[in-house]
Predict the 3D structure of the following.
Amino acid sequence: MKSSNQTVYATALGDAGALGVPAGAGASAGSRAEEVALGGARISARLDRLPATRSIWKLVMLLSLGLFFELYDLMFSDYIALGLVKSGILTATTHGLFGTSGVASFIAALFAGLFIGTAACGFLADRFGRRAIFTWSLL
């Protein structure tokens, strides 16, 4: 019985015989979904074979820190909203569908701003590189 990792490796290497499948059994379907799945299995198998070097751990830490600060930025809006409610600027509930004095409107405006910013400035990542724009956006 093969483990799931062995199955992924055998699939990634195109070794149908190792999986107990007759040669050419799956080749006739040839659908795009199967090609994508096989490509994903190859990538997964390659990543599993990589040694955990210092540069890999550095990349994992940088991505983790970036995710932390991005989520911190989004979640901090909750604390700001509570402060605005306590000071009387916003109400705890939004009156009507398009009321502008409630917390829901504040959060909706936040995500609308994120959407508009992505739509308006998304091309910058293609032009200057995702790493540079990601680093710049954290500053």
